[in-house]
TrEMBL record:
This is Transcriptional regulator, LysR family. Residues 24-81 form the HTH lysR-type domain. It comes from Corynebacterium aurimucosum (strain ATCC 700975 / DSM 44827 / CIP 107346 / CN-1) (Corynebacterium nigricans). GO terms for molecular function: DNA binding; DNA-binding transcription factor activity. Belongs to the LysR transcriptional regulatory family.
């Protein structure tokens, strides 16, 4: 079993161990990360498709090459040292850079960018990225997605993601493009009493909305913060409501007539949407930004895709 306690080993600057420059073996670094992430040598060996004794030998050689004690051993139990914890981010970054270097070589050989990976929240993936990928077809490189949380999204750039779609502002250390704001709207089926009452209008007063049971994301979601702030400023409070962070479920609750869905879905099928207003004030939305590493080999292609994604969002909101 691998635990997170442990004080052995001393963290050293990247590329320097004991005052000496060390070259890191990328294969062994991959093995080290697998153990750190899997929790045990046995689980890591299964994930890597090698035997446990072979993996254990590679880990010892990795420690010898770096002149660092990464694991403290007590029988079959391993404990990560402080040096190991300090080394994890560096290994992740180096492996990601190595993978991108391989992609760059493939792209140069092919004369085009074959594929890119996008990291975003599950809601952004299902409601925005997936429809965009379908609409763009073969006019863009193959895009695959990785779900992440709102607050971990930029960390994905140090992993396998080529570009991230974030709901929080990026730092100055990345290239970025603002994609616009996705409004939070109230969605009901056309036969819902609120839809019939508001027929001919594109908005509903917040006090009228809160007479209904609403379904909305939990407080882990950025959009929920937008809703709570607006409702509070209007001098109201949420009444009967249900929380769910899955947009498909929120849409299903609305279509079944069980609740009015408050969500950032662009145009869910068989539902009509209303802006939520308090007099002349309108419930806002969630800002989106695309971000990528400035030196990325496909930086120009990513920027072009981001601009197309922005145009897709703008067109969907008309």
């Amino acid at each position: 079993m691998l635990s997170n306690a442990g004080k052995a080993g001393k963290a050293c600057p990247e590329g320097m161990v004991g005052g000496k420059s060390r070259e890191m073996d990328m294969v062994k670094a991959k093995y080290f990360l697998a153990v750190a992430e899997a929790g045990t040598v046995t689980a890591a060996a299964e994930r890597l498709g090698i035997t446990q004794p072979a993996l254990s030998r590679q880990l010892r050689r990795f420690e010898e090459e770096l002149d660092l004690e990464l694991f403290m051993r007590a029988g079959s139990s391993l404990t990560l040292s402080d040096a190991a914890h300090a080394l994890i981010p560096t290994c992740r970054r180096l492996l990601a850079e190595s993978a991108r270097a391989g992609q760059a070589v493939e792209a140069l050989r092919a004369g085009s960018i074959p594929a890119l990976r996008v990291a975003a929240t599950p809601t952004t993936i299902s409601t925005l990225l997936a429809p965009f990928i379908e609409a763009a077809g073969q006019t863009i490189p193959l895009l695959t997605t990785t779900p992440v949380t709102h607050y971990d999204v930029f960390d994905a750039l140090e992993g396998s993601a080529d570009v991230v779609i974030a709901t929080i502002p990026p730092g100055n250390d990345v290239a970025s493009l603002a994609l616009g704001t996705i409004p939070v709207r109230a969605w009901v089926p056309p036969t819902h009493p609120m839809a019939l009452e508001c027929a001919g209008s594109t908005s509903v007063e917040v006090r009228r909305l809160l007479q209904e049971k609403v379904a909305l994301p939990s407080r882990r979601s950025v959009s929920r913060g937008v809703v709570d702030s607006f409702v509070g400023t209007a001098g109201c409070a949420l009444g009967s409501h249900a929380e769910c962070d899955d947009t498909a479920t929120l849409s299903a609750l609305a279509r079944s007539g069980r609740a009015v869905a408050l969500m950032t879905e662009l145009q869910p099928p068989r539902l009509v949407g209303f802006d939520v207003v308090d007099g002349e004030k309108t419930l806002g939305g969630v800002p989106l930004v695309a971000a990528w590493s400035p030196g990325h080999f496909a930086g120009q292609e990513i920027a072009q895709i981001a601009r197309r994604f922005r145009s897709f969002i703008e067109g969907s909101l008309r």
